[in-house]
Queue: 3 jobs
Job 1
Amino acid sequence: MNTLGFDSERCERIRQQLDSYLSNELLVETATEIVCHLESCEACSRDLESRMRVRDALQRAVAKQPVSDSVRAGVLRKLRESQPRYLVRTNGRRWAVGLAAIAFLLFSLFAGEWLSLYRGEQLIASILKLGVSDHLICAIKGHNYPELANSPDQIRKKLGAPYAPLLQVVQERLPGFEVLEGHVCSIPGSNRKYVHFITRGQGTILSVILTERNGASLPKGKFLASAESAGLSIYEDHLSGMKIAGFESAQYFAFVISDLSQKQVLQLARGLAPALNEKLHTTALMLTPNANDWAADAVNRPILTETRECHEKGRCRVQEQRQNG
Amino acid sequence: MPHLADLYRTASLLLRDRHEAEDLIQDTYLEAWKSFHRFEMGTNCRAWLFKIMFHRLHHVRRRLVKTSRVVTIDDPDGQVELAAEPVVPQEIRDEDVLNALEKVAVEFREIVLLADVEEFSYKEIAETLRIPLGTVMSRLSRGRKLLRQELAEVARSYGIDPCPKQAGAAETA
């Protein structure tokens, strides 16, 4: 028997996958299974928390390691010395230095641009993965919606003042779909907030998920030229059996996620995009740069706000925040 | 040179010698410059530089092994199961985590650094180190566990019980 109380085969199996979970290398379904297990298993949650604590401490400690100027100078010197001899012989060292400098300037510019692009793609992949995960965990598996739709007032209260006006757009622009629920939620291990509308129609559940761009862009290769809507390019993707269609407004990404056909999801996203885009501009104006932080938005908060919040270690809970008693 | 700091920090933590690390970085950039025509546009430039660095590092390491400066391990793929899950302290100081990392054998340390600090994917790490994906996963898992174990040891060496309440609670679970 071990001291941490991993007394079941299930715990043992989950524990074996925690490293891959931590590295974001699992399929959404497996990650979802782990999240659900963590909700009910304190020992495994504690194990994950411990692993995250060590990883974060390591990242912090390494980032603080100084890199002296001599490293860069040494690299430049080495490159300069390696230049072809004839350049040095004909017009002195200046040619070699100049060439090395230009080469590295170009190299650095290219590398910087690439790094930005690469990190952008990684970010989008992560946003999409979390978005689909949110749909799967929150809507499908978690069943965080009532059988009878919440009233528009209830949904607006849950969304809070900045996002409440979006409800009308989702209601009007998704014909045949009933909005059951709307809230702001997040996924374990991520600080990213998602505005989540859960709708029902055409025999399935469909999510409309919005999240802040923070300067990121969707990969241009996956925009469909044929699926433009009022000048907005529609993006398409699929993940874990879910079809995704979305667009980017000035400050937000918006995704429609469902297991309907790609064509149906695209069509719905096209209908939703222009009006939602317009409303998101108003939302962005209402929100100060820090207003997406719930604590900072107290003035605009409703009397009772129910926020489904998933904590870093993987526990999900409904949090009630009351104001003015 | 946007990747210079990342490469240097990794090199110095693997070689534990500032001068050796500087030499390695110089060689890496020189090699990158000479073979830049082989770089495929649109692929991961950062991973490419790390790949070159680790290729050079293996030469350096072979040399260091001859002077017994690198601890080799009998179980490079981590097949032997470690004892019970180590309990790491709640507060981890920078120097403690770096000291603990230093005690982890280099075969595991390099993977922990690539995965947890540089945030490369398993596939990128496998390509960088030229080892199978399964080996990446098992070494990472064992490397992280060794690090946690070393951190628990560090806490004990200070006379601190890493997490007495937690351990007690777990035993009753």
Job 2
Amino acid sequence: MSDTQIPLPSLADRAHKLNAGGAVVGVHFLGSTPVFVLGEEALLFAGEAERRLAIHSGAVLASAADGERIVTGGDDGKLIETGASGEHRVIASDDDKRWIDQVVLGPDGALAWSAGKIARVRTRKGKLRVFEAPSTVAGLAFAPKGFRLAVAHYNGATLWFPNATGAQPERFEWKGSHLGVTISPDGRFLITCMQEPMLHGWRIADGKHMRMSGYSTRVRSLGWTAGGEFLATSGSEQLILWPFDGKDGPMGRQPKILARAEARVVVVACHPRHPVVAAGYADGSVKLVRIDDDALILVRQSDGQPVTALGWDGAGQILGFGTETGEAGILAL
Amino acid sequence: MVGRSRDVAACAPINGARVGFVVRRKIAYMGPKRSFQFMAPSDAASKIPVTVLTGYLGAGKTTLLNRILSEPHGKKFAVIVNEFGEIGIDNELVVNADEEVFEMNNGCVCCTVRGDLVRIIDGLMRRRGKFDGIIVETTGLADPAPVAQTFFMDEQVGAKTKLDAVVTVADAKWLKDRLKDAPEAKNQIAFADVILVNKTDLVGPEELSELEARIRGLNPYARLHRTERAKIDIDEVLGRNAFDLDRILTIEPDFLQGESHDHDHHHDHGAHQHHHGNGLKHYHDEDMQSVALRTDKALNPDKFFPWIQDLVAKDGPNILRCKGILSFKDDPERFVFQGVHMILDGDHQRPWKEGETRDSRIVFIGRDLPEDKIRQGFESCIA
């Protein structure tokens, strides 16, 4: 156990701090401009001049970005795309004002979102495909290759080929509520976060189950390290990294356990190029964790305000972070 | 809880095998507290209270809901309803719910949770500050237990909100029939903290006291009110703190609690045989009943906790609610607990006061409860 009495090397003083004026629920980058997604209504562009842009009339429930645009879903039933200059437009709007719960962007410019049981995909060319899940969609993820979408729901997850009309979606079953989903970068494993403090996984080729348990709370944040070697996860008083490098992924193997602390890791964000993970804790601290040797650098001091958002720019030069009470920060490395 | 980090187990390849039984919130007894200082949970006040409105179809839930929303109390509510748009609810924050109930994957068949509530409350908390409370209106056929259990089983929900009370609206004219043919209606009565016997203008006084006696046979502990068109003082419905361990003051049947509420029994005097002193006829329901236990001898915690945990593990599916105030040997503090099916929650509450009777009381409300077995088990916990 690392001794918390010895102060960590710290970059906290170098971070630019700003007050977002409300809970921060996401951090994305449009080019090199950090954009904070607020829990209610607005995006906060933190470029040379701060700019607050109200786009939703209510809570912002989900967001995704690809460097050029941010797409947000709200409890106003709207799906809104915002570009780097702040121009925004409504892409879809639910007639019954049902909440847009999930939003993800695909590798080829495709967009997927869900409201209740209905998941929709819009291709780059603007074609719309619809899939009805057996219960409320609680997680969406595009496969890294091939036009394929993973949908998490009760009692399992489904892999859906939106363009293969007539093809039966492939169902992966495991009892319980699956609240998030991801596909390994090599496309071989499907992993879900469950209501229980554990992850469930399937090897896609043969449906073989795996269970990743031992967490002290529900896993709410996941990320693949550069190269897809590890799946970094929140939910414990350590940063938990499951190895996915071998043929069988993490089956029968121990995870790497890094950055032990008194507080729980609540958000993770993997560096896009290097084996480094940014971990946000329930006590407000943010640390950079080097996977090879568990070297830690403090980015934000603990102050009791849970970290709610973390994000890297595409080049891995800038880290943005935000808390439940609306304190945001940007650290340029 | 603090500081003990748990190691994460190796990823286990499994072939459809069930995972081991886990109850996340167990009651734990850490021995008598050394200090006499009573510490209230520091964050209880900042949690958003959630009121659950149940009642069989047509009993008047929506009437009550609209009454709560339109009273000039200056409070704002987020309302979670089912048939979105079908019934007029004049409120800014109305959320449609799907009532998706699922079993926790912990080997416990009664650990059911409302998954949609987990999601909706998560979303609503992004607009924290826009409302003072949440009201969940269930469908007429809903079992209140999964709603209540959601607040114990999901940590995030439990951290931001607190279950205030389950309020059941009963139709004075039709409930008697529904108790015979609709198990849901019986569940809703047995589970309730507050019961409104509504539409009292449609029945005569004898029919009404007969019905109340039947309700008492199922649930002697809920607060019972007579209403017409769900007209009631809002404070009788909201801010009840029925699931707050700090507010477990006494465990007495409601009709013994004196003059503090508004229903009167006078019209019923002398009308029936088998009266209790308060003028209510006594009914025993065939399959739903309450078991009340009491002893003035101190309990042995090393016997009590294994017993209660074993009891709810085995009979939990049939136990709807339980509640207790306990006096342990050599412990200067009262220990209180409550439970829903297999989930128990308990803690030291406060020091016993000087001159206060140090007795232990427990009540179970449930279906086909093995009363003799429960009584014997409880007796064996005496120190």
Job 3
Amino acid sequence: MTLSRRRVRAVFRKELREYRHNGNIVYAMAILPLVFLIQPLISVFTLPAAASGSLRHEHSLLYMLAIPVLVPAALAAYSVVGERLQGTLEPLLATPIRSEELLLGKALAAFVPSVVVAYGVFALFIAVVELFAHAGVASALIRGPDLLAQLVFTPLLATWSIWVGIAVSARSADPRTAGQLSILVSLPTVAVTSLIAFNVIPPTLGVALAFGAGLLVLIRLGGRFASALFDRERLITSTK
Amino acid sequence: MSVENLSKRFGPRLAFSDVSFEVGHGEVFGFLGPNGAGKTTTVRTLGTLIAPTSGSAIVAGYALVPENGVEIRGRISIMPEAPGLYLRLSVAENLQCFAELYEVADPKDRIERALRAVKLTERADDACGRLSKGLRQRVALARALLSDPQVLFLDEPTSGLDPAAARDVHDLIGGLRQRGVTIFLTTHRLEEAERLCDRVAILNTTMRTIGRPDELRDELFAKTLTVRTAAALADPDRVFADVSALDSWRTDGAATYVLTVSDVAQAAPAVTRALVAAGADVLSIAESRHSLEDVYLDLVDHEDTEAGIQ
């Protein structure tokens, strides 16, 4: 089976255009990252230079890995149920598009803005810390391995979260429920990154590799699972 | 398009059963039936959106099997009853998305042509959410035309439209028929089916009848002449006795006679001559024409009555 790039691109473009005009989606994309940006910034600015020693035992940057988990989960949760709600799913599925092309287009459309937002917020945080925090605090917070982890795990976490969101969306009748459920299902991943950030799980190379491998497996399974749950007939006729 | 013994069941519920028909190239085929008769499910099945439970079909030259889904959907277009447009996107953006999904060559030109066909060129940049129901229906029709389909499924295309908007859609269907597009039209509007369709089928879970509207009328209803005279005939038996092509007659009021005839063209002049010869003052002689609606109601009511008796 060969997938059509053109059809994937058509869905991708359409989704991005819809995001642009959908206030709820823009709100979801903005509010979550802000929550994860403001709280650590306040902490950083209230810290005296003497606190840099204790900061060296934490990995506060990794706390921000929650952004690429939660933002795409919220976006992807709307992807299928939103089409059903608008009554656009039937005309869409009546075209020659394959289910895989549709899901891939939707996944890409959730992936790109999520990763851009996650990297953007992360870059903003680093810039603000470097410019305005005490030098000791800045050097304790911003460390090479944490930066690398952020860069590598952001797309992986986003992809996993997107498949979860699409799978939930394919089986939901209400966008709000789908959004809440997909964030709920994604929370264990946030818990793991938070435990690493606060040094409960020591962030060693081995842990990073195991986490990365685990995510790759989850992504593969998640994609298949989402595809299996996307049952055209059930979605069109709403029979269970 | 050829359909043979096609059935669809959702668990214990039968959507339609044992449906068979053929639709020729360039034909406008009407699919009529009451609510819940299985019309939309039939369209969805033929459009590969849902799988049949049993039976077989050939759509746009391809066997209706899951492996041919992409090929079939690439050669047909379905306009569902609800337009299903992206309301936040403009008319042009909606069409652009679907032109890409159908992988049409030169999408810009195709979109312009489709917009011209539905007279919406001026509204191309308007958000679909700002359009009236009738205009949205036209956008949906433009979307269905984008791929130059071999078979076009129109599910209640004039549902909820005002008479002027419905007439525009009718004109468009007429234009498509002239271009040789095969049209499968499901509708509740019987006068619409009668006006547009070469043949119609009446479905009520199972196929009730199929044929040209005039054929169906002839099959189900006897041809009649209604004669009105100024005064009641003294001896109508004698007046009508020698009229050729007359099968029977009955009175319908004091000076009105309903004549069942085998051939209207032969019977009407003969009746006129007999009445004049009898010295009757003839007010009118008219052929009673049955509409497709009569055919439909006769079949559906008959079925309802049978179901009630059971």
